[in-house]
């Protein structure tokens, strides 16, 4: 408990300069943190209408997502991490460290974060309006074949970008529910709470298996060895669903 409290105090101090919301970019590069207009916890509360259930648009393993509107007119997705989840601090730090510097047209943009909302941890992303790939596989909303091919290529391009930067990033939870579609049906890969930075000089990282059953690389699951091929296996499991 003492260690967790110390970690959270350090987190609050270290993230004060990160409570900013940079304009989205689409260039394939990592950018510095701390560019943009500062947003307060009051504005986040207003943006999500007090986190009323009418604004709720999603519910996942780490938190609930609400639709919000910033004062500058931008529509955002505000994720409030569960207070009773012991891994929420780890997930919060992971998103800030890994996602915030990323700029790529097929990766969801993290506008900012705050650790000052009561006891809550909030992450503020661009709003992606057309749901997930999983929502468009069957029925009247099913993607056409040209769109299926386009979105599959864009998802692969997003993962390739993660591996090409230094240090590389392994997503660890590639699945149809984590691949979003914008209003033009372009891909936005999201949900980096389980992601890991991969050492440049390593062949694998020894770590307990994380991810969704059915998509997890069997070698990773059985041997506890995460490699740069683990996401490739998961993507191979996703493609037949397309």
TrEMBL record:
Keyword Repeat assigned: no
GO molecular function: ATP binding; protein kinase activity
Protein species of origin: Zostera marina (Eelgrass)
Domain annotation Protein kinase: ranges: 51-242
Protein's UniProt keywords contain Transcription regulation: no
InterPro entries attached to this UniProt entry: Kinase-like_dom_sf, Prot_kinase_dom, Ser-Thr/Tyr_kinase_cat_dom, Ser/Thr_kinase_AS
Name the UniProt record assigns to this protein: Protein kinase
Keywords: ATP-binding, Kinase, Nucleotide-binding, Transferase
SUPFAM superfamilies hit by this protein: Protein kinase-like (PK-like)
């Amino acid at each position: 408990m003492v260690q967790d409290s110390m970690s959270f105090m350090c987190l609050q101090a270290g993230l004060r300069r990160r409570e900013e919301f940079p304009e989205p970019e689409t260039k394939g590069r990592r950018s510095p943190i701390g560019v943009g207009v500062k947003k307060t916890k009051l504005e986040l509360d207003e943006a999500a209408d007090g986190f009323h259930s009418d604004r709720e648009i999603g519910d996942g393993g780490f938190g609930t997502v609400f639709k919000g509107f910033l004062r500058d007119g931008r529509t955002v997705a505000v994720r409030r991490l569960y207070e009773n989840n012991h891994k929420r601090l780890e997930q919060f730090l992971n998103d800030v460290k890994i996602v915030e510097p990323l700029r790529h047209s097929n990766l969801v943009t993290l506008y900012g974060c705050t650790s000052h909302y009561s006891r809550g941890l909030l992450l503020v992303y661009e709003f992606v309006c057309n749901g997930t790939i999983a929502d468009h596989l069957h029925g009247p909303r099913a993607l056409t074949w040209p769109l299926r091919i386009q979105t599959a290529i864009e998802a692969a391009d997003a993962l390739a970008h993660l591996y090409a930067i230094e240090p590389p990033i392994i997503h660890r939870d590639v699945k149809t529910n984590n691949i979003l579609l914008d209003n033009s049906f372009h891909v936005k890969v999201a949900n980096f709470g389980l992601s890991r930075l991969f050492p440049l000089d390593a062949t694998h990282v020894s770590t307990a298996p994380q991810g969704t059953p059915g998509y997890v690389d069997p070698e990773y699951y059985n041997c506890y060895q995460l490699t740069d091929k683990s996401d490739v296996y998961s993507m191979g499991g996703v493609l037949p669903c397309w």
